Amino acid sequence: MDQQFAMQWVKRNIAGFGGDARKVTVGGESAGGLSVSSNLASTTTAIGLFRGAIIESGAYMLHDVPSEGVYGAIFGAGFDEVLGCTPPNDAACLRAAPVASILTAQGEVFGANGISPDFGTKILPQSLQQAFSAGQFIRVPVLQGTNTNEGRLFEPLDFPFASTFPNILAAGGPANFDLSNPNTFCETEGSSTPAVCSYPQEINLFLGVIGFPAAENTAALGVGLADEYPLANFPDPFLPGDAPSSDEALAQIFTDLVFACNGSDSNIDLSHFVPVFGYEFNDPNAPPTVGFGTAIEPPNDAFGFPSASEHAAELQFLFNFGTPLSADEQQLAGEMKTYWGNFVNTGDPNLPKHSSLWLPFNFFGSVQGLRPGPSLPEFFFNFRQQHFCQIWQPIIAAETGE
């Protein structure tokens, strides 16, 4: 609602700043991208506020934005309790609560990740997937994509540390440490004896930590995913002999399950009705994301394995954060700024000028690969194969906010 109030203000006032109210683009990354998706689906209150949408790594809740009823059932009673409110007069009680108390209760009840859009409301009539697949969204051109290794930012924060930070760093991350050191995370059920993890076991445990449905999280799934994501495919250049990295592998599983395949699903649904321009940011040497960690040795992040194209890494190529970039990365940053600027100006990243053609996703699922030179960005067609979406698709499609 705040975002829509802001866009209403822009519509009323932008002409006074030399702008054109008919040419507003709304864009965001991560939770901001989820907000853009929500505004696209806000057909009751957001029509006419923007003529283009940019979604960066923002489709992660495409299938499981909760309904208003589910959201209230999960959080309502706890919120009431913290603020001392009881039905049937809790609405009036909540409205009368001091702002400081509301904010404290928000942190206690919702936590860092509990707050999300909910559908079945005036602002968001339908779930995102329902709206997009049925064409019941605000039909404007969309530029949407993800980063190759989104999960590198999240995996070490979700995996419990079994030792001191220096030991974790030396091992190449918390999951890698647990592959060769006894720990309580991997002890067998009913035992209190620390145990060394197996890689398939780690997969199952990690999926459980990030909220994967318990009914689907079977031992057979762990073994199958270990075959699809073999450790040998995930060398860590900061370990002796480029040893395999379980943290790298788990981070890629997180990337594909949470970001890549949801983003692709969103592009597929939207492209049936509007022009969609899909991308994948893929810089294997991208600097650590500004504000999310301290570089040990670029491109290493603070947890002992490469950060590279992690979540939010593309932002430093679009905005002047002062991040040190190589000559090839500076060239890529210039190309990306041109694409994004073109899209804002015309609704097409190719116009009025471009260095390399960006085919729309509508053309056989084409995705623009944004990788530093010396070659120019180029499109490719096997994004879903690269991210094993055939494995994740049935699981993702079964998610629902109901």
Describe it:
Strands 1-2-3-4-5-6 form a 6-stranded mixed sheet, sandwiched between helices. The protein folds into 3 domains: 25-65 and 120-152 and 253-397, Alpha/Beta hydrolase fold, catalytic domain (Rossmann fold), CATH 3.40.50.1820; 72-110, no CATH class; 155-247, no CATH class. The longest helix is centred in the middle third of the chain and has 26 residues, at 246-271. It contains 16 helices and 6 strands. Helix 6 crosses helix 12. It is an alpha/beta fold. The protein has helices at 2-13, 31-40, 68-82, 90-96, 99-110, 128-134, 155-158, 165-171, 174-178, 199-209, 219-228, 246-271, 315-318, 327-346, 383-386, 389-397, and strands at 25-29, 52-56, 142-147, 276-281, 367-370, 378-380.
Key features of this structure:
Rossmann fold, 402 residues, alpha/beta, single chain, 6-stranded mixed sheet, 3 domains
Which CATH-level-2 architecture of the largest domain? Answer: 3-Layer(aba) Sandwich
| Main pleated-sheet profile | 6 strands, mixed
Q: Helical segment tally?
A: 16
Please, what is the CATH homologous superfamily of the largest domain?
A: Alpha/Beta hydrolase fold, catalytic domain
Fraction of residues in H or I helices: 40-55%
User: Approximately what portion of the residues adopt beta-strand conformation?
Assistant: 5-15%
Structural class: alpha/beta
Measured between the Cα atoms of the first and last residue, the distance is 22 Å
Under CATH, the topology of the largest domain can be stated as Rossmann fold
Order of helices and strands: HEHEHHHHEHHHHHHEHHEEHH
Number of domains: 3
Cα radius of gyration in angstroms: 22 Å
The global form is globular
Strand order of the largest sheet: 1-2-3-4-5-6
What is the CATH C level class of the largest domain, in words?
Alpha Beta
Mean pLDDT: 93
